[in-house]
Amino acid sequence: MRFIILLITCFLLSGCGYDEYKMPEDAYLNTEEKKITVYEEAHIYDLIKDTNTEILTKNANITTDIIGKKELIIEYKYEKRKYKLKVNYEVIDKTAPIFISAATSRTIKVNDDYYPCDEIVFGDNYDREPTCEIEGFYDLTTVGTYHVSYIIKDSSNNETKKNLRVNVVDEISKSNSSTTNKVTLPISTVIEDKKTEHTMIGIDVSRWQENIDFEKVKNAGVEFVIMRMGINSDIDKDISVDSYFAQNIEAAKNAGLKVGVYVYTTATNVDTAIEHAKWTLETLNGEQLDFPIAFDWENWNKFRKYGISIHDLNETFEAFAKTIKAAGYETMLYSSKFYLENIWDTTMNYPIWLAHYISNTNYEGDYFLWQMSNVGRVDGINGDVDIDILYKEKSTFN
């Protein structure tokens, strides 16, 4: 008798004896096997066409960080019972690799050992090891001009092509170009051209400027200085303090200049980015800054060597920024126009410090700080210095 009561209770309370993967006779849950772009944000409800059931997991995220066919379980409820349904979807990559740097013309001495793909830099949003091949004929044993193409391709067979002219010659002539006077940009010219009630004029410095007289710098019209604090020159090197950082930040503050810092890093993964962010915070030790901490990644010529994807690099930056934010500081992304347009995910909405050495930039993205020259001249500094324009209406860091 006791067993019968327990059995009845089991049926009433938990539905013992029914197959949770068998859909009830009057229920319907129509799905479609969708193709979802890699890294796209997607949810279970994206796979459901129509149903008369209560979907219990409709807002759950779908994993989209690995390409290929996938299976997931939809949990639903019908007439007070819970059921499960297996559905399939596919994650695909439709984005072709990009050329980061590649010559369009090369002059090679006859019989030299040369393979065009070895000299170029390229990357892919997903694939960490996209491939390169040469389309067309060239003969390094015979003098002549050959027209070929690089073809870079990822694991999903997305490809990008670029033309190359190979000039094979008997001898490579040495350039005899005469020495010309170097063109520099006085800070006075920048102030005259760019200074308004809506802008601030500044510089960024590192140990390369050596000893700086910041009182003279301020008197020359400079209003802020962003200085290198950390340097991590390669992935096999430790991050360290710029040898002039301590004296630069003290002297700049004493002169009444607004200050910020940047960290030059070659972090290629989340763990290293977090490590460098923690190092940054420890080194700052609570130092007050007037601008977000700048993340500076520039080792593009080693992108292939590092074996990373564009997505990896953006994850690296985001991990750095989140770690910095958790400690009460903000982060900005420093990069040049090409990389902002082709590599970095600027939709993450972090402040942008644009590098574009031109009198008037045509970069169309958002930025609040513009590094306009690397050959600036300022009283108090021996040699060249980078000059920056801050736009007050684009920034809360004034």
Describe the structure.
This protein is an alpha/beta fold and 398 residues long. 20% of the residues lie in helices and 32% in strands. The protein has 8 helices and 22 strands. The chain has helices at 2-14, 187-194, 214-219, 245-254, 270-284, 303-306, 310-326, 337-342, and strands at residues 29-31, 35-37, 48-51, 54-55, 68-78, 81-92, 98-101, 105-109, 121-123, 131-135, 144-153, 159-169, 185-186, 199-205, 224-231, 240-241, 258-264, 293-296, 331-336, 352-355, 369-377, 385-391. The strands form 5 sheets. An 8-stranded mixed β-barrel has the order 14-15-17-18-19-20-21-22. It has a 4-stranded mixed beta sheet with strand order 2-6-5-4, with no helix packed on it. α5 packs parallel to α7 (310-326). Residues 3-9 and 11-15 have low confidence and may be disordered.
